[in-house]
Amino acid sequence: MNEITLNVDGKIYRVTNQNNNNKFGRAQEAAGTNASPRKILAHYHKLGGYIQDENGNKIENVSFWQEERGRIEANERFNKKLKLANQITSHPVVSSFIVIAILAILGFFLKIDLSRFY
Q: Are the C-beta atoms of residues 5 and 17 closer than 8 Å to each other?
């Protein structure tokens, strides 16, 4: 049997890459270059791969994937917010307002009379 052993947080997990349509290879590819063993196991679970712990007990099919999916969804939400913030701040009126606000704040704290600039 083509058994693969992965160490996640000091625990040993075993998977196979034989007679399962290369699930482990596909999981590695989906997890990305230099992915942690935990992330690879998550994608292996997503594909329905059979994972055993060091005692030979089956690991429930979604435990690793649920954790990874939560991370992916949080990342997507953050990226959406970042994209929206970039769109808003790149607008010429908004960016001009930001510059004026920064100058006003600096002027206030540094006690600079900005009236000569208008």
A: no
